[in-house]
UniProtKB/TrEMBL annotation, chain B:
Coiled coil: none
UniProt cross-references to CDD domains, sorted A to Z: TM_PBP2 (cd06261)
A Pfam family matched in the record: BPD_transp_1
Membrane topology: Multi-pass membrane protein
Name the UniProt record assigns to this protein: Sugar ABC transporter permease
Similarity comment: family membership: Belongs to the binding-protein-dependent transport system permease family.
The species this protein was found in: Streptomyces narbonensis
Length: 305, 317
């Protein structure tokens, strides 16, 4: 597994200005793409897909159902509808505060990850320098280092820095573990933008930075959106760092709040469901936004869960 | 040093005089790359490399903030205790391996099947893809919350199945040692299958279309096309994503921590969960560090064996 092969494997959605070739429907409905004997029978597509969709969607339906139906109801239809659970969870269970904290952490991680990874990714894509090989190796290896196993030393570091119970600790920790992947991806995207474009801009009087800003950055936008969204979703979802580093209720995040709801002696299912829906909303929005870039934007060599 | 700036192959121009370029770009290219990687490098040194080293260091120490009189150099004591005198180590390790093998195998198989299906052309494909992939973005904790609702003995899915005559009322899948493993596996599959499906679908797009056309001309059916064209093309990607996923599943504690808490009766405690308990609840940092070191070595060893066995990047092509 060399650094180079991993990098070149990453396709850049930004390199081509055309939209990603994902949902190309056949040009004309009447024309068969393949000879009839080789056409996949429709039922072989829709039947397994349908079964899998049931498995995927029933859990989503279940949580929506519990979130909107009145406590004590056993109806399988979300009717009559109530917003009681949402109001309760938002105010009594402080999900309003958690939501703000999670959002702040998510946005800060997004910005820090993108900016730092963009700088590093540019260096990796455009320069040869002495420690480049070693740096690449460190990036790849760090994908195997689990943050969960480093909780104690990280806690000690943040205690030293007097950052325990401040959102900054979580922001830094999430950013750091997001960086290697983001940098590998971004340097792949930059590599796919021809260097000659930048050189042409220098001839026209740009310096390196303005050439990058004017010429390269716009082409990187889809890739950056993907990387940034990835960082945001990851920070929004992640649980352990917030659980460990943030002790006071007013600093906690949505996943920690959900865990608290689940850990209660008698679980309030309606509140838990409503909290879950609140947790899902931003992620669903981001997901709908980046879905078409997901497949083209990430290559196997560079993605971790 | 003369060519601190190199053009990638796409740049058609031959290397220009470096001195002239430097003047034109206004930067000092020899220092620039170091400046650019400095923020990332420093963050990773401080918050990944240093913690890893300190784990190695503490693994050789007795270190427990609540029992300071015992703190000090331990030599290999911690490691000896792990292998000879720890009632939980082997159990949690073997559960971890079972968890990883079952999860990753099933995720790969279902993910591959799903990717092949949504790679076909059919009406409603865009929507189908979006729906099928959607659990990918759901967090471990939220997954737990959803499945806690589904598995609830009073109001969960088993109640409604019992209404239909399947199973018994009051079945609690998560508190029964016989059912907790499959129940947790299914919950994690729900979220994990889309990961593989997305990655494999991305690689399916890179298989040259004309290969299939040529195969069709030669009269190869769909199954032979899959075995001889598709599979060899996506093999490397599958190997890498399987490995990454296995490491990730091994390390991931969010789901089991919140879904089962490692229970019932420690039945679903993975090695990382055990480490977390040892360090966070029992404050035995020295011992937890030794356990972490062992986990690192196991991960490294398994990764190397796996890459070997799968002849990754083999010369066959």
């Amino acid at each position: 597994m060399t650094a180079e092969s991993t990098l070149t494997a990453a396709p850049a959605p930004g390199a081509a200005q055309a939209p990603p070739p994902l949902d190309r429907t056949p040009p004309t409905a009447g024309r068969k793409r393949r000879p009839a004997w080789d056409e996949v029978p429709r039922w072989q597509i829709y039947l397994p897909l349908g079964i899998y969709l049931v498995f995927t969607l029933v859990p989503f339906y279940w949580i929506l159902l519990f979130a909107v139906r009145p406590a004590g109801s056993t109806s399988l239809l979300p009717w009559p509808m109530t917003t009681d659970h949402f109001e309760k969870v938002w105010t009594e269970r402080s999900f309003g505060v958690f939501f703000q904290n999670s959002l702040l952490i998510g946005v800060a991680v997004l910005v820090m990850t993108t900016v730092v990874a963009l700088a590093g990714g540019y260096a990796l894509a455009r320069f040869d320098f002495r420690i480049k090989k070693g740096f690449m190796l460190a990036l790849l290896c760090s994908q195997f280092v689990p943050g969960a196993l480093l909780l104690v030393p990280l806690f000690q570091i943040f205690a030293e820095l007097r950052m325990i119970n401040s959102l900054g600790s979580v922001i830094i920790a999430e950013t750091v573990f997001q960086l290697p992947l983001s940098m590998i991806l971004i340097s792949g995207f930059i590599r796919n933008v021809p260097y000659s474009l930048e050189e042409a801009a220098w001839v026209d009087g740009c310096n390196r930075f303005s050439a990058f800003r004017i010429v390269v950055l716009p082409l990187l936008r889809p890739g950056l959106v993907a990387v940034g969204s990835f960082a945001f979703v990851h920070a929004w979802n992640h649980f352990l760092f917030a659980l460990m580093f943030l002790s006071s209720q007013s600093k906690q995040t949505i996943p920690v709040g959900l865990n608290t709801l689940m850990g209660a002696d008698s679980v309030d299912l309606g509140a838990l469901a409503a909290g879950g829906v609140i947790a899902a909303v931003p992620v669903v929005i981001v997901f709908a936004f980046i879905q078409k870039w997901l497949v083209t934007g990430f290559s196997a060599g560079a993605v971790k869960g | 040093m003369a060519s601190a700036v190199t053009s990638p192959p796409q740049a058609g121009k031959p290397q220009a005089d470096p001195a002239r370029r430097r003047r034109r770009t206004g930067a000092a290219p020899r220092r620039l790359p170091y400046l650019l990687i400095a923020p990332a490098g420093l963050l990773m040194l401080g918050f990944i490399a240093y913690p890893v080293l300190s784990v190695f260091y503490y693994s050789l120490q007795h270190y427990n903030p609540t029992k300071p009189w015992r703190n000090g150099f331990a030599g290999l004591d911690n490691f000896t205790r792990i292998f000879t005198d720890d009632p939980h180590f082997w159990g949690t390790l073997s559960f971890s391996l079972k968890w990883v093998v079952v999860e990753v195998t099933l995720q790969l198989l279902f993910g591959l099947a799903l990717a092949l299906i949504v790679n076909q052309t059919f009406v409603g494909r865009a929507l189908g893809r979006a729906l099928v992939f959607s659990p990918w973005a759901v967090s471990g904790v939220l997954t737990s919350a959803i499945w806690v609702l589904l598995y609830n003995s009073q109001t969960g899915i088993t109640r409604y199945l019992a209404d239909l005559g399947i199973g018994e009322y009051g079945t609690s899948l998560l508190s029964d040692t016989a059912t907790v493993f499959p129940a947790a596996i299914v919950a994690d599959l729900w979220r994990g299958v889309p990961f593989f499906a997305i990655l494999i679908l991305a690689d399916l797009q890179s298989v040259p279309k004309d290969l299939y056309e040529a195969a069709e001309v030669d009269g190869a059916g769909r199954i032979r096309q899959f075995l001889h064209i598709t599979l060899p093309h996506i093999r490397d990607a599958i190997v890498l994503s399987t490995l990454l996923r296995a490491v990730w599943e091994f390390n991931n504690v969010d789901l089991l921590y919140t879904l089962t808490g490692g229970g019932p009766a420690g039945e679903t405690t993975t090695l990382p969960l055990y480490i977390a308990h040892t360090s966070v609840d029992a404050h035995n940092f020295g011992y937890a560090s030794a356990l972490t070191t062992v986990a690192f070595v196991i991960l490294l060893f398994c990764s190397m064996v796996y890459l070997r066995l799968s002849k990754f990047g083999g010369d066959g092509k």
